[in-house]
Structures are given as C-alpha cells and as structure tokens.
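Question (not urgent): is this output format expected?
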Amino acid sequence: MAQSNGRRTSRRDIYLRLRQMVLTLELAPGAALSENELAASLGVSRTPVRESLILLAQEGLVQVFPKIGSFVSRVDPAQVADAQFLREAVELASLEHLPERLDAGIVDELRDNLRRQRGTGLDLEEFFALDEAFHQGLMRLSGHGNVWTTVAAAKGHLDRARRLGLHENESPAVFADQHHEIFAAVVGGDIAVARIALRAHLRAVFNDIERIRAHSPELFATGTPTVPVRRNVVVWE
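Got this back:
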C-alpha cells in the first residue's frame, strides 16, 4: 500500500511540476512537448508525464493533436477574460465584507509584503509570489481567504498573461505602486476608492495582452481553431 501511495504522490508531483513550468513560461505558449524529453529531464518514466499532460489538457493548458503531438496551449484571451471576470467579481465582493476593525496581524503581513515588493534584486517570479500573497491577504482580511484556492485553480491562462505583462514592463514597480494605493484605501476605510483602484489594477492585464500580441502574436490563440502542421518540423500555421 505504501508503494502505491508513493506512486500517486510521484504522479501528483510531476503534474504540479509540469503545470508550474507552463504557468511560469518555462514551457512557452505554443511549444512542442516531447514525453521522452520531459521524462528524461524530470527523471521519471513516460507514464506519469503522459498522465500529467492529459490533466493539463483538461485544464486547457496543453493541446493534444493525434498523429502530430502535444503542445503547450497558446494563451487564450477569451479564457483570460473569463478568469479575470471571476477574479474581479470575487475580489471586489470581498471588499464589501471587510470588518470595521481589520485584523492587525494580517495588516502587518500586508505591510511587510509591500515593503518586500520594493526590494532590490527581486526577480519576476519572486514578485509574482508576493503579488499573489498580497491579493490573498486582502481576501483573508474579509474572512474569505479560503476562496483564493478556487480562484487560483481557474486562472492558468490569466497567470501566463500576467507573467508576460511582467516581462513586458521594465520594472514591476508600477504594480507595486498600485498595490500600495489599494492597501492605503483599505486601511483608511475608503472602500469606494479601494474598489476603483483594485478594478483598474486587475484589468491592466488586458492592455498588456494587446501590447504583447502586437509584436508576438504567436503566443496567443486566435478565434479560429488552428492545428500545427508536420513538415520537417512541426510548425503552427
């Protein structure tokens, strides 16, 4: 029984590792996926890799084309919009549930988080993690922190678009400034201003998508379904 549990844990770990590689753009949108190469790089057999790719396909993060191969899904603006709709609805609603007296411990955590966002030498993944923790902290202030797990599970395409936006900007300082504005309004009890600032902050990803798509359209799905073509190498048309 222990061995069986170990295999399940291993397969879960492989799935999470591959999912993270997709979300962090280590496996770029549109990239061809080789089960053999992935298995070799992860030090496992092909079976957990194949099973993981099936799960990722169910999430819309991988596409499998019979007789052609598996590919990282290109970022789908429609799925980004759906995830953004969900996230915005939940986060804005949470502001309406803030208690009159905010949890001092969470406020201190958020203040420290904001301080670290302005730290020097911060790489983009470190900033992204702080960004996630900040928004989850706002949810915790409202007493609905556990909802974040549901939101996080639904925003794979959105998170890739956000990371592309971070790479596109010279510095994440603009996002840190927006976080400070939101936090100041929340702590100051001005929920109307907090809502406006939070909504504008969350919707900034749409401008990033349009700017990036102008010079790198191959990273994004189009409204018309496309299938890669196998020539000497597999290419997207």
